[in-house]
Amino acid sequence: MDYIIFDLEWNQGYSGSEYDEPRMPFEIIEIGAVKLDEKFNLIDQYSSIVRPRLYKKLQPHIRAILNYDEKVLRKGRPFDMVCREFLKWCNESKEYIFVTWGSMDLSYLQNNMEYYHMKPLDTPLKYYNLQQIYADIQGDELVAKLERAVTTLGIESDRPYHSAMNDAYYTGLVLKKMKPKDLEDRYSYDTYNNPKEKDDEIIAYHKNYMEHISQEYESKKEALDDNDLLTVKCYKCNRKTSKKVKWFANTQNSYICVCKCWHHGYISAKLRFKQSKDGKLFVIKTVMPENKKGVENIKERQNELRIRRQEKRHSSKQTAS
Fold first, then answer.
1. Is 154 helix (H, G, I), strand (E, B) or coil?
2. Which residues contact 248 (CB under 8 A, 6 or more apart)?
3. Nearest to 1 by CA among 49, 36, 30, 38
4. If DSSP codes are grouped into helix, strand and coil, which group holds residue 88?
5. SS3 5
6. CA angle (71, 72, 78) in 5-degree steps
7. What is the SS3 string spanning 172-233?
8. Reduced to 3 states, what is the DSSP secondary structure of residue 91?
9. Secondary structure class of 109 (helix, strand, coil)
């Protein structure tokens, strides 16, 4: 298994988001990648500048951090040509998995591919979000910047950042330095092309949690009427659980509950509602172990929200009268 660590630089409308092309708000202007073997040794690299079609003038903030300007971009090649070359380079490996620093690069890559009417990537698309893996292992609750990870791990930084090639190179060095023993269990699923039908749903059992990416729904009510979605089974043994705290709306776009498996203890489950490209909804459901303090915090949150709703109803009645 090879690891293809890639990074993108992109540009956007110069005059503000209201002037952007809605089908491609972020236009890729550079693709950089390194390829590591199963022992995390660097075995190949890829780099190319993309000549923009839509946003030919660099947005000021982007221009400030890049190491090149519009003159360099004009010498680039069209996106579809570069992307096909990049994917061909990827497929020289018999087996590979993408690695990115953060979750956005794969979405932007696929969005640009879709704009150019290119064949979509195979789904479900597994990848490693090294930024999240780094944060989990280091116990870093902040969204760590690549520079910070490089410095923390004592990696020599002799190349400028904010170049797709260099950032991919540094991300590869971070992966090589960390060498997570449980890396195979830390994969994520990209949801740019989310499941559409029931048969396409993704259910993945990890060591310490279960992830369920649902089909599409027309509304939140339709999702909450789906008994399969609301049923909580143990992330470890897949046995049925008993409800201790019923599903409740934690935020506008998430629900949470607490259950108990008589073999593996307390379990919390969360539903996160996401909007698909076509305006419908899908749900990412996670089920994971919970300790007693966590259960009490969830109960307190439920009670706090209940009191807020009661106060709001009372205030509305007083206003009406």
1. coil
2. 255, 256, 257, 302, 305
3. 38
4. helix
5. strand
6. 110
7. HHHHHHHCCCCHHHCCEEECCCCCCCHHHCEEEECCCCEEEECCCECCHHHHHCCHHHHCCE
8. coil
9. helix
How many C-beta atoms lie closer than 10 Å to residue 217's C-beta?
Answer: 19
| Dist CA 28 CA 11 (whole Å) | 6
Note the residue count of the chain.
Answer: 321
What's the one-letter identity of residue 35?
A: K
Residue type, 137: I
Helical pair 104-115 and 79-90, crossing angle rounded to 10 deg = 130
Structure tokens that stand for 202 in this block: 């993704």
Helices (H), the chain: 60-65, 70-74, 79-90, 104-115, 130-138, 146-152, 164-178, 220-224, 227-230, 292-320
| Domains annotated on the chain, with CATH | 2-185 (3.30.420.10), 195-308 (no CATH)
Q: How far apart are CA 56 and CA 217, in angstroms?
A: 38
Q: pLDDT 10s per residue in the chain (321 long)?
A: 999 999 999 999 877 666 688 999 999 999 999 999 999 999 999 999 999 999 999 999 999 999 899 999 999 999 999 999 999 999 999 999 999 999 999 999 999 999 999 999 999 999 999 999 999 998 876 667 999 999 999 999 999 999 999 999 999 999 999 999 999 999 999 999 999 999 999 999 999 999 999 999 999 999 999 999 999 999 999 999 999 999 999 999 999 999 999 999 999 999 999 999 999 999 999 999 999 999 999 999 999 999 998 888 877 766 666
pTM summary value: 0.91
CA 276, 277, 283 angle in degrees (round to 5)? 5
Distances in Å between the Cα of 256 and the Cα atoms of 82, 228, 314 are 44, 15, 26
